Fold each of these.
Amino acid sequence: MLIRKAPDIAPSEITPESIYRQRRQFMKGLAAGGALLMSGQASALARYALDEEQVRYLGPDWLQQKLRAAQKSSVFSTDEPLAPYEHVTGYNNFYEFGLGKDDPKAYAQNFKTDPWSVEISGEVHKPGTYQLEDILKGVDLEERIYRLRCVEAWSMVIPWVGFPLASLLKRFEPTGNARYVEFTTLHDPKQMPGQRSRFGTIDWPYVEGLRMDEAMHPLTLLAVGVYGDALPPQNGAPLRLVVPWKYGFKSIKSIVGIRFTEQMPVNSWQRTAPREYGFYANVNPSVNHPRWSQSTERRLPSSLFSPNIIDTQPFNGYADQVADLYSGMDLRKWY
Ligand code: MTE
């Protein structure tokens, strides 16, 4: 990835008014969560009751209700220690809002994520433009704690809230020609300063793709929340992909388009630097990036004196679940 050396996270000194209002709203939400708990229902909000100084993102009412009902999936979750909330929401890659790790949090706070719609197109029997609220009707959300391994060789353990991509794709009834799925992020330079920059690295909008069997794999998640709350804008609100066995750049944020295709899509990083980034981007410690090793990773939180370097696992530790998707393929060629 065309990256600058990441600075350590600088906690923001300033609280924009919108955040302050969200925080007040959070306190109300926390009280509501507590009431739910007392009535015997599990509450994701109460489960991650953070201190009141932390910014929480609640999203629209209909989403809050669904988030509170989310159940933890132990089958799909790791029990490794979670990255702290401020790392998950303050150390981000979202080039639409800038190249620095703290740019997305600084510049995405007024990003409008409600109402939101997703256009379904291509090789599919039920194309159309669907409101997010309709997409989520009848969907039970679950919490899954996944490892996220960035191609830049850092990683975090993150508690996402979402639902399997497969369940959504099936509803649109892909045709027999659908071999791949292409995802597109919103293109809105007015809201996204990175898309206005003359020094941009990416040909906007950001695009990603999966082979159909990868998209249908039970590990592949569409996330609408994190840490029991709605996704913050910097994490790809209101809808993002999470593919835990692939490098983080496959996990495209703020999705507005899903297209079923016969041809393999060209994803944004592959288009930008084809020698460095491929279509598959499976986490693979034995295939180095042309400019750095992929055999280890910096597990956040880490610091200069305690870098917390760990070995990178094939398929990010999910090999027993996904390796057979690639049997017979030369993973050096299909990086
Ligand atoms: N999606 C869009 N639209 N734009 C981006 O710049 N960055 C990717 C991915 N999704 C990116 C994106 C990269 S490189 C990573 S590592 C993850 O988002 C980071 O997700 P996080 O910020 O929620 O940890």
Note: The chain has one domain: 71-324.
Amino acid sequence: MSDSSSHNNHNNDHHKTPHELFDEFLNKAKELKNRAEALDLKSKYLGKNGPFSTILKSLKDVAIEVKKEIGQQCNTYKDQMELLIKEKLEELEMYEMNRALEEKWIDITLRNSNREMGLNSAGLHPVSIVQREIEDIFISMGFEVLDGPYIEDDHHNFTALNVPADHPARDMQDTFWFPDKKHLLRTHTSTIQVHGMEMHKPPFKFVGPGKVFRCERTDASHEMVFHQLEGMMVDKGISVSHLIYFMKTLLSEIFRRDVDVRLRPGFFPFVEPGFELDIKCLICQGKGCSVCKKLGWVELLPCGMVHPNVLRAGKIDPSEYQGFAFGLGLDRLVMMRYVIDDIRLIHAGDLRFISQFKAY
Ligand code: PHE
């Protein structure tokens, strides 16, 4: 009710009989929604300047009997109203309390002790464990660890890696493109090779771990988001024998046991020659399972000698410097090491899964 209307009512109030006022009050009391409104109504009708006081004041000049009768009438109504407001206030208080209880509901049966605290209880994610270990292996061999962004441009993901526009090799990796058609989620960590060459003059050697993204159907051995660890070494006189030496050292350090490996030719536009290094599946011992697609071997380490065009794009003269590069599939490695038969567990975020892993 606005000020001006209450003022108008007030002007008319001395024309209303106590009974009319009481009726009016009852109607308004039905509409009350909260305690503030109830208190407001109380002060309007029962307050010092309320309509009943006005009536009583206006009785100054009337006969004593009339004064008495009307005065009594007023008091009876006022008592009733007082009581009604009191009840209403209690009722509204209950209502408000119940509503608050409903809204601010807490399930006290929820387990709140023993909150999982990363390192303290659940431990590191198996991918982090393996990634850190491999970083340490390479750091001990004098490699640097580099990082790179998830969002890349065409240049870093393709062109600088000897995959020009319209090259069929772009279809080898199903790419998540941004609507501007210029940016993408990196499909491999080879983008870090390009960043590394921008940052360093040869000789250099570094690894670059991280998530990569491909628009693929998921199954036990395929995920849309997975992890790679890129490696690149550029120096004078680097040959395939350096590549093989570093890969063998890596695998014997990681598995702490002899693993059967085989080298097959592999095609990647950014290496020449290119290889696929496979290891005998440690889940089925080479018998064939869902992880190795019944082949008995798992593709683990694509690698090769850095293509001269890649060196040139990185402002390195291929007649002076050579290099090798590799792109280790971290998830598969984790699966081999811990005997996990479904890659989808790796990103599922289930603490019961994650808390099972300890560093070797
Ligand atoms: N980037 C390649 C891929 O993701 C792997 C690779 C890296 C191959 C480095 C050779 C050298 O498929």
Note: The CA atoms of residues 161 and 270 lie 5 Å apart.
